[in-house]
Amino acid sequence: MDGLVNWRWAARDFDPALGVADEDLEAVMEAARRAPSSLNLEPWRAVVVRSDEGRERLATAMLAANADRVRHAPVSIVMLADLEAMRDVDNVVRREAEAGKPREYTDGLPTKAAVFAGGAMGKAGDAMRLGAFALAATVSGVALPTPQPAEAWASKQLGIATGFMLVAAAARGLAAAPMEGLDAHRARAAVGASSRFAVPLVVALGYAPGTEMGEGAASARPVPLGSPRRPLSETVSLETLGEAFPAGGARR
User: Fold this and answer.
1) Coil, strand or helix: which one is 73?
2) Closest CA to 203 of 37, 20, 39, 43
3) Does the N-terminal peptide bond of residue 231 adopt cis geometry, omega within 30 degrees of 0?
4) pLDDT tens profile 111-153
5) What is the DSSP string of 199-247?
6) Closest alpha carbon to 225 in 9, 2, 5
7) CATH code for 2-221?
8) What is the pLDDT of residues 78-91, one digit of tens each?
9) What is the pTM of this model?
10) What are the structural domain ranges in the chain?
């Protein structure tokens, strides 16, 4: 796993002549589907764009070099954050009940979900929910989740799924590039999504130039130069922020 994580990088370009096999694409999307999800609400959708026409439409929504990544990659995945995830809460409750969750849990699930996902009234519902939370936190003095718009919460959940997707892609020798440089309005239009959805990310997927293929799989992966990162000692602390991790101080 260490080697896999270290091999993964955000590809700067793709070989348009090398397609992504259906089984590889399905495995990548299945990894995203199985990612952890708060209350199993899964407040995101993904639209896989593979056709020449679809990729060109999407490219017009991307900024700068991201447009060429979408044009050259055989697959781009538009990640949509659901701003009205409560519309699906009845289906979530049903699935949880069918999975054997106790009645006391499923009965309380809609209330718990509303804390994070809000209602189904978009920004107006967000404003009322955040105001009620701020008042409750002030009056009660108990620990409560920090109020945040539904888009912030849904985007966090989507980010977890995207991380799983990127690791699964690397496991199959696929290069990937998660991109947030985009025009969300145009990206929604390119895939036929309504304003119910935000577009935090588009992920381009394929093979980097120079990849050698053998029997339909990547037989020799290009070895990218690892992107620079802060040393572990500057990123991770032990117990309180600023305390050395691991104990005795990190050397990396």
Assistant:
1) coil
2) 20
3) no
4) 888 878 875 555 555 666 666 666 666 666 677 677 678 899 9
5) EEEEEEEE--TT-EEETTEEEE---PPPPP---HHHH-BSSSTTSBSTT
6) 9
7) 3.40.109.10
8) 999 999 999 999 99
9) 0.85
10) 2-221
